[in-house]
Write a structure and sequence with these properties.
Blueprint (H helix, E strand, L loop, with lengths): L4 E6 L4 E6 L6 H8 L9 E5 L5 H10 L2 E6 L2 H13 L6 E5 L14 E6 L20 H11 E12 L3 H10 L4 E8 L8 E7 L7 E2 L3 E2 L9 H9 L2
């Protein structure tokens, strides 16, 4: 039922999260985290559209970095704050109540080393309410990323593969040339469903395409690579 939430554990109990019934953590986000690039111990990270904090909290736990978790939805922001406290990360994860279109009102230009973002997958009018764009678009998320990143800073983006051309066109306009690409397949026999893109601001160069990342075996179980991520990523 919409509005209810429960506490779950992940990574063999290393992480606890209160998450809404209608918007739970998916394996896609864990796979995304395994391909995030550019993070060092000293990195300042922004998570745009942080939701209830899964990406922010995992990155802070794994790398010991400071993460500014930007989220505008009041309910998600409340869960985000609770999850930060639940995982004793008040000194590392900073919830920020803000629309991505307004980040320039709160942050200086070029003030982050890394941005991670998982924008709504579908253009306005497609998909369900949670995964479809409303008044903010893919371009809004990418413009905010370009503003926040220093030159040489890394943008890590998760999106459906059918939006790759659109994303690449916008990234070119924003001086965020794509440098790494991973395609994620539900099974080897299925078309690629998701894309993980890493851009480096104002650092052009060749695009490196990783080997395919496959979620499920032909029998429907998780592949060994995904099982390992789900158990031991942090």
């Amino acid at each position: 039922m919409r509005g209810s939430s429960k506490e779950f554990t992940f990574f063999r109990g290393k992480l606890k999260l209160i998450q809404p019934e209608e918007h739970k953590v998916s394996v896609d986000l864990v796979v995304f985290l395994s391909r995030v690039r550019g993070i060092r111990k000293s990195s300042k990270v922004a998570d745009l559209g942080a939701g209830f904090g899964f990406l922010s909290i995992v990155l802070a736990k794994k790398y010991g970095v400071e993460v500014h978790a930007v989220e505008r939805d009041e309910r998600m922001l409340e869960l985000l704050r609770k999850n930060v406290e639940l995982n004793d990360l008040s000194n590392s994860v900073i919830p920020v109540g803000c629309d991505v279109r307004d980040v320039k009102d709160l942050f200086r230009r070029s003030s982050f080393d890394v941005v991670v973002t998982n924008p709504p997958f579908f253009p306005y009018g497609e998909g369900d309410d949670i995964h479809s764009e409303g008044d903010t678009t893919l371009r809004d998320f990418l413009e905010a990323s370009s503003y926040l990143l220093r030159d040489g800073g890394y943008l890590n983006l998760l999106l459906p593969s059918f939006r790759l051309y659109e994303a690449f066109t916008i990234l070119k306009d924003l001086n965020l040339p794509p440098r790494f690409l991973t395609l994620v397949y539900p099974k080897l026999s299925k078309p690629g469903k998701l894309a993980i893109v890493t851009s480096i601001r104002n650092v052009p160069g060749p695009l490196h395409v990783d080997r395919p990342l496959v979620i499920n075996t032909p029998e429907g179980d998780y592949t060994e690579e995904v099982k390992e991520l789900l158990e031991d990523f942090i």
